[in-house]
Every structure is written in structure tokens, then in C-alpha cells.
Amino acid sequence: MSAIQENDMTNTSRLEHCFTALKQQNRPALVSYLTAGDPDAKTSRRLLHELPEAGVDIIELGMPFSDPMADGPAIQKAALRALENGQTQAKTLEMVRQFREQNSTTPIVLMGYYNPIYCYGVERFLTDAAKAGVDGLIVVDLPPEHDEELCQPAAQHGIDFIRLATPTTDAKRLPKVLANASGFIYYVSVAGVTGGSAPTPERLENAVNQLREHTPLPIAVGFGIRTAEQAATIGRFSDAVVVGSALVDCIEHASSGDDAVTRVHGLVKELAESVRGCRY
Amino acid sequence: MNKPLSLPDANGLFGSFGGRFVAETLMPLILELQDEYATAKNDPEFQRQLAYFQGDYVGRPSPLYFAERLSEHFGGASIYLKREELNHTGAHKINNCIGQVLLAKQMGKKRIIAETGAGMHGVATATVAARFGLPCVIYMGATDIERQQPNVFRMKLLGAEVIPVTSGTGTLKDAMNEALRDWVTNVDDTFYIIGTVAGPHPYPAMVRDFQAVIGHETRAQMSEKQGRLPDSLVACIGGGSNAMGLFHPFLNDADVKMIGVEAGGKGVNSGLHAASLNGGTPGVLHGNRTYLLQNEDGQIIDAHSISAGLDYPGIGPEHAWLHEQGRVEYVSATDDEALEAFQICCRQEGIIPALETAHALAEVAKRAPTLPCEHLMVVNLSGRGDKDMMSVAHHLGDKFGVKNV
Predict the structure, then answer these.
(1) How many CA atoms lie within 13 Å of B36's alpha carbon, on the beta-carbon side?
(2) Do B24 and A192 make contact, defined as CB atoms within 8 angstroms?
(3) Domains in chain B, start-ordered, CATH in brackets?
(4) Residues B103-124: pLDDT tens digits?
């Protein structure tokens, strides 16, 4: 990373840059989720590097875990594929580092479960992640009650800790959830696991508007969003739309690495086009 | 140092172990459960109902039986068996299920879910769900379903839906993942009856409290029989609920030695075992920090044990804490040692123990001969072995001229 960029980074994060720019364009961000190392390291690297060109604004990269208890079948299988092919935390960070050699603007958020980070060592992980160019973390099994574990240390390394708000997060609890949140808020559209049923847009819009009353942070919506139409509908009132299981399914159904890249980027292009026009 | 009996703290921590490592969707419910349980604990009406069902439905108190022939056989310590296998459904599991189902009713929940390994917790959960008229879904690893067919049939007879879990490796940990996925999806109307002293706070403390009836009775029964406390307590450990139930009321009695026996499988050095404390490292899984079987990258490794009920790659967080404090000694017994002790118990006492329980008896076989007969040793006979006939026949059938049971 050049000195200028580095200096730039200390003042405004890539995530802030991204959301500011998109606000000017009056459109939501397209956030893609893929599991690092799925289906194998080489294909995964290709998938990652070409995501921005296909139209992704923010990359969520899954750190595979053997026991992903908040994920549905699609992402469970993706994690197993990646682990069977030898993916590790160190390899995931190395993927980010290589990505950053070519791309210094697209934010990357690592998503996963606490145990692989805990075993890597929290300080060592945060140091290596910051160095590799990671912008944020989403860790499903660290509620605000455990902020001292990772959320607070991450802030000291300049890494955003993206908090999940859910349909069960009531008004009484919301301040606690938002207290140490940074980067953006990830609104989990339905009570359930990833790749489940689609939420109803009306209820979602209400929930997002209520969240806005409590936080100035951008609000992303994810869980159950699979199609360009859904992305457009939800992108009208949210700041970002997250698509995960539908992309991961493309990898599962692919006949080869090339086919996986073609399928994933094909769906990304449809989604990107749809979010670009959704507010007009 | 924290006093053992005052833990966990307000955040559900036993030292650095325990906690509430769950998805945000579950947090409000878990906090509500914590409040409801705190209220129930001090509610005379709840305690009265619990005592009623423990007595007339479960059949408590379970006897503390002097195992005269077993004591003679080993030629050392006087061995007492706490007969939890005589409880309704044949194991200690129902002590906890009765408590949790009463709580579920109080909270107005309409549906019960649970995970099960050997099927004993599944059967106990299906039983209380039937008794209280609640629909019940049991998640069970596909591998475990294969080796525990009689219990699968029992659960179905009791009206439960048994869902085979094929994700991951199809064993207890995957069943627990799947139960957590169900819970997060049906959070409004569903009560998750966790079967052991693990999971997010308040489960480890709540399950312990419901199982502590074992230790409280043992105290009173031994005082009545011998006019003093036992010298040592021995129990097998998977997640660790039967052991915690026996141990906890004695934690402040420094003279009472406690030994927890993990499943050593093919041997703790073989890599094929379920001994989280003896062969694992600290990590975070299923809502709590505890000792886990995992690789250096934090990926969970499959446990191995001849007994499906001990086949879990973690252990209750309070055990992890007691291990680090040195208050309880944690050892292991191999598959072969358990099978040997299983047969000795059958022949000497006319009691067919569960294969889980046989691990505790294997430690007794090592320890009792070295002690004088004045030494009063209590073993938690946590379950009966009827469910294990097929597994045992598989391993020992030739010896008895039995091919299939």
C-alpha cells in the first residue's frame, strides 16, 4: 500500500468512502458473500478478484468453520468444501492481501464464527487482518455482551465491527446492539439461518426505518435475498443488499472452476444492474 | 478465588469459561430465559411442582446402593452406586427435562426441541413433551440413529418427530447445530431443552441445578447410612451433566475427592477419543467457551467413543473451570476398559449399566483396589444399558454366541 493511501485510510475508511460515493449516486451497495476457499483456493481467488468488475461494491468473505450454526445448507456445504480443500485462517488473510495488491478501494468484510479467530489468537489475527487490508468483521456468535473479546480490540486496529440487528432485537435492546457498532449495521431480515425464506418487503421497510431512528450508520439487509427483483425492492429503502446463499449455490451447481466463475459473475451482474436502477 | 458454589457470575462465566456466544436473534430469548429461571428458582410453587414430578413421575429419590459384591471383587474401597438408572426412562436425563419442561410451560412455549446423541436425552425429552402435551422435535445424527435404533423407536412411540441430521459428520455436535438452527428460526414459540451442562448461559447452571438433586440425595443418604460424607465421587463425562449433578453439592467439602471420567476411545494419544479436557484445548462452540477437540485452526474434530452419549467434542464450561482449578480430577477410560467394566458390573451386581456409565466403572476398577474398605466411594450409575445391547453384541457377541440382537 502506498504512503498516500495509507494516510488516506487513517482518516476515512474504505467502507465510509464506499457508502458516501453510493449516496451521491443514489443507489444501494451490492454486497456479495462467498466463502473463502470455496470450492478450492485457486477458483476462490479468481472469484474474489473479479467481483468488483462484475459489479460488487462490498465483499463479504466467509471464514469457513466446521460448525456454522447460523447458516443454512448452502453455506454449510461451502464451508465444508473449503475446509476439505485445505482452507485455513492464514490462507483467507493471504487471499485478502493478494486482492489488495490489485484493488485498494473495494471494502472487504470477513464474516464467520469466533472460534477460528480465538484459536488464531485475537491480537495476532487483528494485526494480520489489518495488515492484509481487511476493513470489517462480522462475527455471528459474538453478541454485545462479549464486546471485550473482539469488538473493542478490533476498533484499536482500525477494523470495523459490524453488528447484526434482527427481528427479535427489540427497542429495549437496540441501544446495546448499536453501542459499539461501526462500519454499517447488518439487518438480518428474518429470524432464521442464511438461505432461508424471503422476508416481506413491507415489514422489512418498517424495520429499517425504525433502525434509522437509532443510528446514523448505513443499514444493509441480508438473509433470504436471492434474485435481482428482491434486491431491487429491498435496495429502494436500504443502503446495501447482501446476497450470499444464491451465489454459493452457483458454485455448488458448477461443473468446473470456470463454470463456477461464469455462474457467480453472471448472477452478480444481474444483481448489480438491478440495484443500479432500483431507485429510478 | 471465586467460591465454587457462587458461580457462574452475572455474565454466565465460570472464570473465563461459559458465556453467551450466540447469534443476536437468540439473545433476547436467552436473557428472558435467564430471568424466568431466576424467578422459578425462588418460586415455591415451581419448586413444589418440580418436587412432585421428581417424586411421583420420575421415581425419586433414587437409591444409594451398597455394591457389596463389586466391592469384594475389587477388594478395596466400599463402593456405593447412586441408582439413577432406576429413574423413569432409565437415566439421569429426565431430572433436567422435567425442570425445563415446567419452565417451558411457564413461559408459554408451544413446541419443544432437543438434540440427542445416544438417545437417552431424546427419550427423556419426548417423554416430558408427551406428559405435558407439547409437540416435540428431536435432532439426532444419522450415524447415531444407526447405532441407537431402540431409542429412535421409543422416541417415535412417545410421539416425537425424530429428524436425522446428515450435515457435518452426523453425530451429536451436528444434531446440536441443527437444533440451534431450528431454534433461531422458531424463536417465538419454541423451547430448546439442552440435555447437558453446556450451551449458552443460563443452560450450564440451570441443567446443573436440576441435576444437583443427585448430589443432594447422595449427601443425605450417605449420612444416614454411614453417618458421614463419602470420601470420593466418580462419574462419567460427555457434556458432564450426571457428574455435575453428583459433584456440585460437595464442591465446598474439601475432603470429598471427585473424579470425572472422560471417554478415552481408542486411547487419548490415538486421536480417536472424546476426552476434551485430557486431549483438547479451550475454544468457543455451541454458545460457550470450554475445552474442545479441535485442530490448531479452530476447526472442530470429531469425537470418538464406543458410547454415543459421550461422543461429543466439548464439555460443560463448569467442568473446564473445575479442571483448571484442580478441584476435580479428570481422567479417561478407553472403549476396551469400559467394555470390561461393563461385564464386571453385569456379573457381580446383576445390573446392566449404560456404556457411558461403564466408563466411570472402569475408573473404579483402577482405583478401588488401591483403597481401604473404610473408603466410601460413590459411583453415579447414570443410566441402564438396555439401549446398548446392539453395540455390545457387536463387540462381544462372539463371546456369547450371539450374532445379532
Answers:
(1) 19
(2) no
(3) 4-55+93-205 (3.40.50.1100), 59-90+208-400 (3.40.50.1100)
(4) 999 999 999 999 998 899 999 9
